[in-house]
Specification:
With 430 residues, the chain is α/β, with parallel strands linked by helices. The protein is 43% helix and 9% strand. Helix 5 runs parallel beside helix 8 (145-165), helix 8 packs across helix 11 (207-231) and helix 15 (345-352) runs parallel beside helix 16 (376-390). The protein binds coproporphyrinogen III. Homodimer.
Length: 430
């Protein structure tokens, strides 16, 4: 059975409610090759977008950003919206990803944070002790005003672009946030790090401090994502870029409940949720469960309430006994996993098997960014291989295995989009 329940919590003028984005190729694949009514349908073309598609690889971006810091440009609605639209205009990609950053909720809460060019997020003072965590200001929803305005300008710009191109779907906007672990990794270290030692030490040595920090990050990221979706984004992506640095046991115990709590903020909205990390082959199934079970999570992952671990256990036991553990209406309808270039999509799809909805999970990925610098033929063959492997998933949205490197030639990206759009598409399997 396919759920066609409209999302009751979205505003009446939301593009998923008015239907402007519902039949876009991106959403068709996030639904596993289905139309909005749940019937198998081929997308108008094979969808593709790139993480960090907006940014330094584009001359028009570098020009617009001149003299404005990264975070200031994110909080200027006209600028953020124009930067979001630039790659859609240039490459004809199938999604706009909101131009912002995972640390924007910190800045909006009043935390002293900056993005140093070529370095990444740097905090005025790292968050190390329980006192530091308890001193973190709570985010006021009103602080999201510039985000809401930027999203509204963007969705309106995307609508105009569809009209100009005379297309019968509007390119969806994807909203996003950092997962609590990845966000906390920057907060505890105070700057980018390779091994994420301080945050991993805190988790086990000062678990109470970790629990309070991760809960704070889950609230901040959850509210940030919800603000974007309510203002007009048609999907949400949770970036847990560094989750791959954790063992399966540590991910399950210290991280999954908080990612689940972050996602519980959007789980009632009926939007596809993409969960992305790098080097995550040891935890892919748990990352999917985090999305599937987000709806039954309490927003505060304290001792009580069903955690991913508990829900997964119940679901497995129920499967063995041939019954359904959870009311399907209580599960997030469209879980999608983002896979980096270290894992073949066919292997990822086979490893995951069917989800709690009984279907193979849609995957997003995973062109190796290094191939963008290869000769045209090598890149062409690599993209064909990604497409062939992606066909074994229950839906495939092509992306890079991680972000666009700043030194990428944008014309190469446009050619990749053309190649992907030229392949034949098929309806999803029942
Ligand atoms: O096109 C897009 O994907 C748009 C928006 C976007 C940005 N950051 C803009 C950005 C998104 C989705 C992010 C997410 C983000 N930010 C993540 C998760 C994804 C990932 O890359 O793993 C992380 C870890 C961050 C934190 C962050 N912000 C880092 C590590 C950096 C890189 C520092 C650098 O300069 O190389 C940033 C800066 C940043 N965020 C840039 C952009 C376009 C570059 C800033 C610039 O153009 O000067």
């Amino acid at each position: 059975m396919t759920s066609t329940t409209p999302a009751p919590s979205l505003p009446a003028d939301h593009p998923l409610v008015t239907g402007l984005t519902t039949e876009a190729p991106l959403l068709n694949q996030y639904r596993g090759g289905r139309d909005a009514a749940g019937n198998p349908a081929a997308p108008a073309r094979q969808p593709v977008w790139f993480m960090r598609q907006a940014g330094r690889s584009l001359p028009e971006y570098r020009k617009l950003r001149e003299g404005t810091t990264m975070l200031d440009s994110c909080l200027n609605p006209e600028m953020a919206s124009e930067i979001t639209l630039q790659p859609v205009r240039r490459h004809d990609v199938d999604a706009a990803i909101f131009f912002s950053d995972i640390v924007i909720p910190l800045r909006l809460a009043g935390v002293d944070v900056e993005i140093k060019p070529g370095v990444g997020p740097v905090l005025g003072s790292p968050v190390r002790t329980l006192e530091d965590v308890r001193a973190l200001p709570e985010l006021d929803e009103a602080a999201f005003a510039p985000i809401v305005e930027a999203v509204e300008l963007t969705t309106s710009g995307l609508k105009d672009m569809a009209a100009e191109a005379d297309r019968d779907w509007v390119t969806p906007l994807i909203g996003f946030a950092g997962a609590p672990f990845t966000l906390a990794a920057y907060m505890v270290e105070g700057k980018p790090s390779k091994e994420h030692l301080a945050v991993r030490t805190m988790m086990k040595a000062n678990t109470e401090t970790w629990n309070e920090l991760a809960a704070w990050a889950a609230r901040a990221s959850g509210a940030f994502m919800r603000a974007q979706v309510m203002a007009g984004a048609s999907a949400a992506q949770l970036f847990d870029s560094w989750a791959g640095s954790l063992s399966r046991a540590d991910y399950l115990e210290y991280v999954a409940p908080f990612s689940q709590a972050a996602l519980s903020h959007v789980a009632d909205l009926g939007v596809p949720v993409i969960h992305f990390g790098t080097g995550t082959s040891q935890i892919l199934d748990v990352m999917r469960a985090v999305v599937e079970f987000a709806r039954i999570a309490p927003q505060e992952p304290v001792e009580s309430g069903p955690s991913v671990l508990q829900a997964m256990g119940e679901a497995l036991a129920a499967k063995e006994e041939g019954r359904t553990a959870h009311d399907p209406a209580s599960l997030t309808t469209y879980p999608v996993l983002g896979v980096d270039y270290r894992m073949n999509l066919r292997e990822a799809a086979d490893q995951l098997g069917a989800g709690t909805n009984g279907r193979r999970t849609p995957l997003q990925g995973n062109i190796d960014p290094a191939m963008l610098f290869a000769d045209a033929e090598t890149l062409h063959q690599h993209v064909q291989a990604v497409l062939a492997d992606g066909a074994s998933a229950g839906g495939h949205v092509v992306n890079l295995g991680h972000g666009v490197p700043p030194e990428t030639n944008p014309e190469v990206l446009t050619r990749v989009v053309e190649q992907i759009h030229s392949v034949e598409t098929h309806p999803g399997q029942d």
